[in-house]
Amino acid sequence: MWIRIRAVIIEDEPLAAQYLAALLDDTCQVEVVGSATESEAGLRLCAELRPDAVFVDINLPGKDGVSLARQLAMLPQAPRLIFTTGNANRATDAFRLEAVDYLL
Amino acid sequence: MALLVFLALGLVEEVTASHAGWLNERIVSVCAAGLVAGPWVGLAVSVFVTWLAVARHGLPFGAIAISMVCGGFFGGCLYRWRPRVARQPLTGFCLTFGVSLLRNGLSFFYGPNSHPLPHRLEEIAMAPVLQGLGTALILAIVEQVRNRDEQTRAVASAEARALQARMNPHFLFNALNAVAALSKVAPREVPRATGLLRQFLRASFDQHERLLVPLEEELAVVRAYLDIESLRLGDRLKVEQTIDPGLLKVLMPPFSLQPLVENAVQHGLQSSPRAGRLRLAVRATGPWLEMSVSDDGQGLPSTEVERVFFGEGSRVHALSLLRRRLRGLFGRSFKLEVHSEFGQGTTVSMCIPLPKAFRVGMESPRAVTSELRELAPN
After folding, report:
1. What ipTM score was computed for the predicted complex, to two decimals?
2. Which residues from B are below 8 Å from A60, CB to CB?
3. A5-103: what CATH class?
4. pLDDT digits over B290-319, tens only?
5. Cβ(A81)–Cβ(A54) under 8 Å?
6. For the domain B163-375, what is the CATH superfamily, name and number?
7. Cα gap A72→A82, rounded to integer Å
8. Which residue of chain B comes nearest to A23, CA vs CA?
9. What is the CATH code for B2-161?
10. Domain coordinates in residue numbering, chain A
11. Residue B276 main-chain phi, psi, to 5 deg
12. Which of B6, B60, B193, B241 would disulfide-bridge B280, Cβ 3.0–4.6 Å?
């Protein structure tokens, strides 16, 4: 039996969120259980849903993805982190936070 | 202008009292007028100096009139048909030399003259050389001034080109990502999206060809830009525009409003999750065409504005480039101002001179407010 990964997407751009959800859906291994467009809502959603993985846009408006990741890591059942963005310069910040992967 | 200068040169003869005839400014002024300003100015100056010479000094009409008109007319013909030859100081020398010889020869032929013969021979030999040198000197000076003008213009145009708004590579990257995403999520939207991108790129490549474009063309670029960003940002980007339709034909530098809008989208919207309202206003304010773009983002402390937007760091901000470009085009008669308060959003306004025909009186501006999304072609 397949084990489906439960994932949350935190992304401010609706098109990018839909695109990522469609790509994840194609894999048949990831189930997107929720999505949020900004950090605060994303953090609440993760605390509530306890996903296995979180896809975080590193350039979120307001509080950015890196500081959100720090807070996610402190959750009781910390999800695995995957950053998504177009900016490769920030990949080093991401790996310092033990991100699993970094999608450009 | 040229006519006045050369008429004045013709008058110099009157005031300098060099009546010996060795240095005859009349011939110099006639030849130089033709060579520098064309046949009509040459003829006008020759008629004027002939009148001076005949009426005031009683010189023989035939000799003076023929030689002067020949000088002005031939000079003018060279100017008209062989402009490069006409510019050469050597041409000026030869023409003046010839005209001077002609004048002296004709005077000798016509004139009852009281001077003794040796003096006349000396005059006939020396005068053409001196007068030829006079014209050559004038042409050399004119040429030098012209060269300097051309150089200044070339430098200014090279600088204007270097300061043209460069396409932000992030924008192109984001736009292509959006097209890739659409092809997966909403394939039917792809042709429209690529069409918008094509329109924007075309305008961006063509901006070097024209120094000024009508406002309506710049607005079309801004609209294409905003529509592309809307693909990506969806409902997060709301645009209100207030544009006086009477101003659509006003000429303005290409890609001058677009950087203001791009700045508002990038910095305004990215700064706060609640932000997303962009206001674009174009109106006539007295002698100015005023364009302003406001966002409701986080804003900056007003003390930081100058450093962030106009600082000379390693990465020059688009607004700093725009300011330099406007200075090159309008000198001191333009305004580019940024108002920002922390927590209050940012407004960038730009004013450029408005031609008189477009200025409105005391009546209220005929403004039309609309949501941009409704105007965009589908």
Report:
1. 0.79
2. 273
3. alpha beta
4. 999 999 888 888 777 877 787 766 667 888
5. yes
6. Histidine kinase-like ATPase, C-terminal domain (3.30.565.10)
7. 12
8. B184
9. 1.10.1760
10. 5-103
11. 160, 5
12. B241
